[in-house]
Amino acid sequence: xxxxxxxxxxxxxxxxxxxxxxxxxxxxxxxxxxxxxxxxxxxxxxxxxxxxxxxxxxxxxxxxxxxxxxxxxxxxxxxxxxxxxxxxxxxxxxxxxxxxxxxxxxxxxxxxxxxxxxxxxxxxxxxxxxxxxxxxxxxxxxxxxxxxxxxxxxxxxxxxxxxxxxxxxxxxxxxxxxxxxxxxxxxxxxxxxxxxxxxxxxxxxxxxxxxxxxxxxxxxxxxxxxxxxxxxxxxxxxxxxxxxxxxxxxxxxxx
Length: 255
Known about the structure:
Layout: E1 4-10, E2 14-20, E3 27-30, H1 35-45, E4 51-53, H2 59-62, H3 65-72, E5 75-79, E6 91-93, E7 98-101, E8 104-110, E9 119-123, E10 128-132, E11 135-136, E12 139-140, H4 148-159, E13 166-169, H5 174-184, H6 189-203, E14 211-212, H7 213-219, H8 228-234, H9 241-254
Parallel strand pairs: 3-4, 4-5, 5-6, 10-13
Antiparallel strand pairs: 1-2, 2-3, 7-8, 8-9, 9-10, 11-12, 13-14
Helix pairs in contact: 4-9, 5-6
């Protein structure tokens, strides 16, 4: 049985996620920007957090971990490579390790780039990947620590997942990302339609995440950097995929 996914708005533009296994009652919380909204979401559903999965060390993803762990006794899991700057871990993981939430099994993916040590959690049987600030809706995280080549390798890993995979990313940046994406591919009809849908959702106060990987492959310029048409549009026909990605990222940083 697939995990039930709940999106929990936190802070001004962050998201945490609940991943609930109905068969066992186990519930993972993915990232904890602040504890109160998550505890409220759990209480409303009669669930209790059994696991806390941390994607990376930035405060807007971990500041609520100590309070949530103290309130629930949840097992805290994060990257071994990042353990020195995360809250105390009950389990330190690396790429390829398996995390179990009830009957559901998730695989750890190293998605360094935004930070070095950033991980994603892919639950293949549930068709969901928690990407936080690596692959985002119509975007990707700024390269605070890693290189463009690192981030491109990380995005390639995520792009290879099944297209119907639900992408649970960490922020409500989609409208701004859409405006930038249309400067790169102004004639992409799928992107134009998605931009309109994003604007409608935000006007109604609805989250624009999760998205599907198929949507990202069709509209996210950062995932599309290796396409021949993108290289032509960028005037970089002889460049490597990673070089085109780096240029798109640089333009977004200036946008």
